[in-house]
């Protein structure tokens, strides 16, 4: 069974410089811009922005 091409896997990297990443999926048709989410970074124990990396 073929995977859906509109939903792609993206890697979110912490802007705090710790190198911590999250992996998620997004719909490229609805959100063509790079994804920016505030998520928890366990290495510095606080919420920071995570930006999409290509």
Helix and strand topology:
Blueprint: E1 7-14, E2 21-27, E3 36-41, E4 46-53
Antiparallel strand pairs: 1-2, 1-4, 3-4
- SS-based class: mainly beta
Low-confidence stretches at least 5 residues in length (pLDDT < 50)?
A: none
Taking the sheet with the most strands, its summary is: 4 strands, antiparallel
User: Main sheet: which strands, in order across?
Assistant: 2-1-4-3
Basic shape: elongated
What number of structural domains do the residues give?
1
Strand content: over 45%
Radius of gyration using CA atoms only: 13 Å
Structure description:
The protein has one domain (7-53): Single Sheet (Rubrerythrin, domain 2), CATH 2.20.28.120. The mean pLDDT is 93. Helices cover 0% and strands 54% of the residues. It is built from no helices and 4 strands. The chain has a 4-stranded antiparallel sheet with strand order 2-1-4-3, with no helix packed on it. The protein has 54 residues and is mostly beta strands.
In short:
The chain has 54 residues and is mostly beta strands. It is built from no helices and four strands.
What are the salient characteristics of this protein?
54 residues, mainly beta, Rubrerythrin, domain 2, four-stranded antiparallel beta sheet, Ribosomal_bL33, ribonucleoprotein, Ribosomal_bL33_sf, Ribosomal_bL33_CS, ribosomal protein
């Amino acid at each position: 069974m073929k995977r859906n091409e509109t939903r792609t896997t993206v890697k979110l990297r912490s802007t705090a410089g710790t190198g911590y990443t999250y992996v998620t999926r997004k719909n490229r048709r609805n959100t063509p811009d790079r994804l920016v989410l505030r998520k928890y970074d366990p290495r510095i124990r606080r919420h920071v922005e995570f930006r999409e990396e290509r």
